[in-house]
Amino acid sequence: LKPHPEPALKDVSVLDLKSPKNKFLWEGKPVKHVYASHINHDVHLYEGLLKLERSKSIDDWETEAQMKSRLGEYFYRNGFSGETVKFPDALIYIPEMKLPWAIEMEMTRKNNKRYDRTMDAYSMRKDIGGVAFICRSSSIEKALSSAKSKTHFGDVKFDRMHLDLWNEKPEALTKHLKKYLSTHPTPSAG
Description:
The chain is of the alpha/beta class. Helices cover about 35% and strands about 15% of the residues. Strands 3-4-5-6-7 form a 5-stranded mixed beta sheet. The chain has a two-stranded antiparallel sheet with strand order 1-2. Helix 3 (about 110-125) links the parallel strand 5 and strand 6. It is globular, with a radius of gyration of 20 Å.
């Protein structure tokens, strides 16, 4: 064992994956240790989702792990490139909306190419109404907007919210997203 590499978890020990002794303990790949930033990401995400559920702002929600379990391992791979398919952090099912919205929690600034790939992946999705990014900083929001401007989104919608507002009042997101509901009356039958 060795101390956890995350300073916030200095009292926690984890398996030393580089130790020759441990190669004999695991037949497959051992689970990697969790970083505090991942825990922080999930706490913000799930607390907001629970608030949405309790306020009845959504009908249901599904986590990334639940989606992967439901869809099976073969769905993960893109048939053309072999790359992993982009899964959102969560899907939310908003009343009156036909398709769920993808939620992405963006806690750290990533490189521009990664944002470009994310936007390309979402622009091709036909099973969601849109994607909403919850952003910790304005620099993340700007990078996402820049990546979106390079991508043709078609019918998929794009929106964002600052993390502070998500933490305080996540139902503001679902109220805001309802602007995408069609305001045109449907023709009556007969």
